[in-house]
Design brief:
The chain has 142 residues and is mainly β. The protein contains two helices and eleven strands, in the order βββββββααββββ. Strands 6-5-4-8 form a four-stranded antiparallel beta sheet, with no helix packed on it. The model has no long low-confidence stretch (mean pLDDT 92).
């Protein structure tokens, strides 16, 4: 994927670009057993070539893939599970790292909202860029 961000305004603009990869949640306990996946898939950070960041994606049906991102950018990992504690007070979350954890990390600065073990079922590469007025900046993941 290739992302190009453009600043058409008169002032420099700071942007947080978050290309995101996730597995559809078909492993949760609330899914009927007859439709539930036998195994939970996994995304995890792996060693990458200089100047890149990489994620290994493992799924029992789809197979194994690698996502490589330009630049040594932070990779923010959570699980693609609903934040039940936020939506339904009194209910517990299935994971301490819920799907809106990436937002909580970027917007609120809550580093505890993303998995420090660099694994999960949802990941975003966190590109933080400042774009000059009337210019563009390309980047991406493959």
């Amino acid at each position: 994927m290739r992302i190009t961000a453009a600043n058409r305004g008169p002032d420099p603009a700071e942007l947080h670009l978050l290309p995101t990869l996730w597995f559809r949640n078909d492993w949760a306990t609330w899914i009927a057993e007859s439709n539930r996946a036998a195994e939970k898939p996994n995304l995890r950070q792996i060693a990458a070539a200089a100047g890149t960041s990489a994620v290994a994606a493992t799924h029992s049906v789809v197979g194994d893939f690698v996502l490589s991102c330009e630049g040594e950018v932070p990779l923010l990992f959570t699980d693609n599970t609903t934040n039940h504690e936020r939506l339904f007070p009194g209910q517990k979350n299935e994971s301490p790292y819920v799907k809106d954890g990436i937002n909580d990390c970027v917007v609120q600065g809550n580093q505890a909202a993303v998995n420090p073990e660099k694994q999960g079922t949802k990941v975003a590469a966190h590109y933080r860029v400042t774009i000059a007025p009337a210019s563009r900046r390309p980047g991406g993941c493959a």
